[in-house]
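Full entry
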Amino acid sequence: MTSLQDFRSSFKGQITTEGDAEYDITRWAKNAARKAKYVVYPVNAEDVSKAILFAKANCLEIAICGGGHSPSGASSTEGGLVIDLGKKMDGVRIDVEKKLAYVQGGAVWGSVDDASMKHGLVAVGGVVSHTGVGGLTTGGGYGWLSGEHGLAIDNLVSATVVVASGEILTASDTENPDLFWGIRGGGSNFGPVTEFVFKLHEQRMEIYVTELVFPNDRVSQVLDEIVAWGKSQTPKEALHLVFTVPPGGHPCIIVLGMYNGPLEEGEERFKRFVALGPIHNKSGNMPYPQINKAEKHAAVRGQNRLFRGTFVPTFDKELLSRIEPARQKMVVDHPSTVNSAIILECYNPEKVASVPVDATAHAGRHGNRHLSLVLNWNDDGLTSQMRQVSKDAMSNIVLKDTGAYGNLSDADVGSGAERSIELFGKNYPRLASLKKKYDPENIFNKWFAIRPA
């Protein structure tokens, strides 16, 4: 299929170019927008296949967009073709009897939470409700419930994948199991996933959530309690430690904690932090879906953003003590970054680490916690410098690189094969062989690209 006319006549969805009312290249991160030649909105897997074949025939770079959350621009393309699943392929269907969720590739996690919780069921998903299901899942998928149920990929039953040849394949333990292995951590390297089937878990509606804010002069005490809490953390509880400056506010540390159980038990588990005397305390029961709407720094679309992350050893106070000085230095050197945040995500690691590292493509099963810099800046003229700024800031905290979680390491996307090899570790050779089988021309190369063997 080489001609645009043939493509249009056979495509059931919508094909747009610049100037069309429906043409949309905006992204969650302002700096991730690229001027595509075509943005297509498929309605089914057959449309996706046709878009891939058209792009290949016309030598157009392909980008896959679900939620559009990738600050690196991995879901965008300059002059190429965007397959945007988010406009017309965002449905969620729940099979209550089998406890399965059928989720289209363009859905966001908030839709999954809302649809499943009506039945007292939940999928393991992301911590920001408007994050796309596709990108987060194929990259691994940590969430508030990972301590109990593992990663999103550990709860994936099957997926429909459109590979580079245009073939529409089912990937599961029994059908194309090699592809199923690859998409569970290998990102978009093997093609768009048009439908995910997730195992669901019974879930209470009300969970305990605490949001505590401390001034910067309480850093040492908060870190002491973080270290102590971590020694007895149960699978039912998780915590985000956020170093930031709220808009119009002062530098602070935020403890956002969750306990998947009754109010009294949650209060008991987090009372050590309340005893420190926070300047803001918002604690109590909350409907589970609401916690994925609590990360206020992630709420607004259209700001300049970039992620840089690394795994860190479990609760190393010396390392944690370097976070706030590094953030302050970055802001002094680059005042435009003042509202950036550095976040330590603390999920109980035992469930994730219990899965062998070679069971899926995702390599981050060592039990370390993830530290990420969510870089925000309001001066567009600084955009070209921000990858280096993020690297400098993180190097002032972490003295030795211990690997990263691809979904929160956008600053390294496109930095070359060496970084991809580091990301996938011992799984890289097998991924390279799969790449040769399913995408030998490397047309899906916008994330951490894998070179065909």
